[in-house]
C-alpha cells in the first residue's frame, strides 16, 4: 500500500483491531445481545488471533495452533446443531443498503490494493507455471523427474482444475507470471463476492443480505491475511457458486467437480450433495461430475509426453500425503505429536461424514449448507500440515449459514423450488418476488 499512499502502512494486528471495530459497528446486534448472529460473529473474529500467533513468532505458533483447534471445535459444534436453532429471523444490518454497497466497494478496493502490492503466494505461482505448461503442452515435471506432483509452500498439491481455469487469465497477462497470479487472486475474491450476493438474491430473496455477506467476507481479517492464496480461494468460490446453482443439479455437479480438481477437501462433500439430490437429480449430478472429471483428465493428456507421464500427473494431482500416518518434517499442530494420534481423529471424521450423509434422510438447503460447512471444518483437525489455518476453505459457506434466515419451508426438491412460497421468521416475511405478483388489497372506505 505504501507504493500508492506514501507513508501508509497497516500491519496484521492493526488490521485486526480496525476491522473488529468496523464489523461490530455494522453487523453486531446491540439490541439482541444473545442472538445467534452475535455468536457467529464472535466465533469468526476469534479465528484471527490464532493466525496472528502463528505468523508472529515461532514461540507462539504452538499456542496459535491450539487456539485455532479450540475455535474450530466451537464452530463445528455450532454447525452440527444448526438444525436446533429454529429462531432465525431476518436481521437488518446497522447500515442502510447504500452505505453497505459503498463499504463493500471500499473493502474490495483495499483488498485489491493488498493483492497488487504483496508478493504472490507460492501456490499461486505454481498454478501459473502449470497453466503455462498446459498452454504449451509441455510436462515440465517429467524433465525435473518429479513423481509426486508440484507442491506449494503450504504443502498442498494443486490439481488440474486450477491451471485449466487459469488458462483463461494467464494469456491476457502476456506471460507475466506475477501479474497473472495477482489477477487470479483478484478474480477469485470477486467470484466469492458475487457468489454470496447471488445466494442472497436467489435463495434468501434479499439482495441486501447477500451484499452484507460479501461485505463481511471482505472485512474479516482472516481474508486479508490470506488474500493472495489462490489455491484456497478457487475451491471456495466454486463451492459457493454450486450452492447458488443447487436448483440445477447439472451445473452444481460441474462446479463441485471443478472444486474437487483444485484441492482434495471438496471430495468429502460429494456424499452429502449426493444424498441431497438422491432420487431427484442424482443422475444429472453424477453425470456432470463424471464429465468434469473427464475434461480434467483430458487437460492432463495435453501436457503428457507418453502414458507414463499421464499416469504420473494423474496420480500426482491428488495429495496422497494427507492420508499417511507417519512422521514427517512438516509444520503445524501434528508435527509436535506422534502421528498415530491422527488415526482416531480421522476415524471420527469418517464416522461424522457417514452420519451427516445419511441424516437427515431428505435434506433441504438448510441441512446441505450446515453439513457441508461442518465437514470442511472437521478436515482441519486431522489434516497433517498446519491443520486449522485453512479458514478460507469454509469461510464463505460459514457466512451463508450465519446470515441465512429460516428456510425450513423451502421444498427440498430442487425441481419444486420455485413452485411454492418460502417464509422466514415464522412466515412473517414472504418472498418479495411472490408478493410482487399478488394483487394489491382493496381498501374500502
Describe the overall structure.
- The termini are far apart.
- α3 packs antiparallel against α17 (365-382).
- Helix content is 59%, strand content 1%.
- The chain contains 19 helices and two strands.
- It has one domain.
- With 445 residues, the protein is mainly alpha-helical.
- β1 and β2 (429-430) form a beta hairpin.
Beta fraction? under 5%
Number of DSSP-assigned strands = 2
Average of pLDDT: 81
Largest sheet descriptor: 2 strands, antiparallel
Element pattern in H and E: HHHHHHHHHHHHHHHHHHEEH
Return Rg in Å.
22 Å
Shape: globular
Count, helices: 19
Tell me the span between the first and last alpha carbons.
64 Å
Task: State the helical fraction.
Answer: 55-70%
Give start-end ranges of low-pLDDT stretches. Answer: 144-155, 416-445
Q: In what order do the strands lie side by side in the largest sheet?
A: 1-2
Give the structural class.
mainly alpha
Give the domain tally: 1
Amino acid at each position: 500500500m505504501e507504493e500508492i499512499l506514501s507513508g501508509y502502512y497497516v500491519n496484521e494486528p492493526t488490521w485486526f483491531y480496525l476491522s473488529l471495530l468496523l464489523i461490530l459497528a455494522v453487523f453486531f446486534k446491540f439490541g439482541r445481545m444473545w442472538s445467534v448472529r452475535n455468536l457467529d460473529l464472535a466465533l469468526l473474529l476469534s479465528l484471527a488471533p490464532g493466525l496472528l500467533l502463528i505468523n508472529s513468532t515461532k514461540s507462539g505458533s504452538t499456542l496459535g495452533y491450539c487456539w485455532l483447534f479450540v475455535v474450530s471445535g466451537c464452530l463445528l459444534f455450532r454447525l452440527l446443531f444448526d438444525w436446533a436453532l429454529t429462531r432465525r429471523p431476518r436481521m437488518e444490518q446497522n447500515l442502510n443498503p447504500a452505505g453497505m454497497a459503498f463499504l463493500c466497494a471500499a473493502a474490495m478496493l483495499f483488498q485489491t490494493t493488498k493483492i497488487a502490492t504483496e508478493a504472490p503466494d507460492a501456490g499461486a505461482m505454481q498454478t501459473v507455471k502449470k497453466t503455462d505448461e498446459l498452454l504449451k503442452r509441455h510436462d515440465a515435471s517429467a524433465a525435473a523427474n518429479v513423481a509426486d506432483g508440484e507442491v506449494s509452500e503450504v504443502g498442498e498439491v494443486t490439481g488440474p482444475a486450477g491451471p485449466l481455469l487459469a488458462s483463461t487469465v494467464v494469456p491476457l497477462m502476456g506471460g507475466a507470471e506475477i501479474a497473472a497470479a495477482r489477477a487470479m487472486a483478484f478474480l477469485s475474491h470477486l467470484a466469492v463476492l458475487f457468489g454470496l450476493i447471488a445466494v442472497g438474491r436467489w435463495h434468501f430473496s434479499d439482495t441486501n443480505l447477500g451484499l452484507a455477506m460479501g461485505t463481511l467476507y471482505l472485512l474479516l481479517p482472516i481474508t486479508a491475511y490470506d488474500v493472495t492464496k489462490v489455491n484456497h480461494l478457487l475451491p471456495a468460490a466454486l463451492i459457493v457458486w454450486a450452492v447458488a446453482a443447487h436448483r440445477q443439479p447439472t451445473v452444481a455437479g460441474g462446479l463441485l467437480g471443478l472444486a474437487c480438481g483444485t484441492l482434495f477437501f471438496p471430495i468429502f462433500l460429494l456424499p452429502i450433495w449426493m444424498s441431497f439430490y438422491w432420487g431427484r437429480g442424482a443422475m444429472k449430478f453424477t453425470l456432470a461430475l463424471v464429465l468434469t472429471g473427464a475434461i480434467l483428465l483430458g487437460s492432463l493428456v495435453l501436457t503428457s509426453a507418453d502414458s507414463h507421464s499421464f499416469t504420473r500427473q494423474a496420480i500426482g494431482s491428488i495429495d496422497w500425503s494427507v492420508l499417511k500416518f507417519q512422521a514427517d518434517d512438516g509444520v503445524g499442530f501434528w508435527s509436535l505429536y506422534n502421528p498415530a494420534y491422527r488415526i482416531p481423529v480421522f476415524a471420527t471424521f469418517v464416522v461424522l461424514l457417514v452420519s451427516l450423509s445419511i441424516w437427515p434422510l431428505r435434506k433441504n438447503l438448510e441441512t446441505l449448507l450446515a453439513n457441508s460447512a461442518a465437514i470442511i471444518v472437521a478436515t482441519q483437525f486431522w489434516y497433517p500440515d498446519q491443520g486449522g489455518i485453512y479458514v478460507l476453505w469454509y469461510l464463505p459457506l460459514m457466512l451463508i449459514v450465519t446470515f441465512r434466515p429460516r428456510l425450513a419451508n423451502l421444498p427440498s426438491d430442487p425441481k419444486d423450488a420455485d413452485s411454492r412460497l418460502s417464509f422466514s421468521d415464522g412466515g412473517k416475511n414472504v418472498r418479495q418476488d411472490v408478493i410482487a405478483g399478488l394483487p394489491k388489497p382493496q381498501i374500502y372506505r
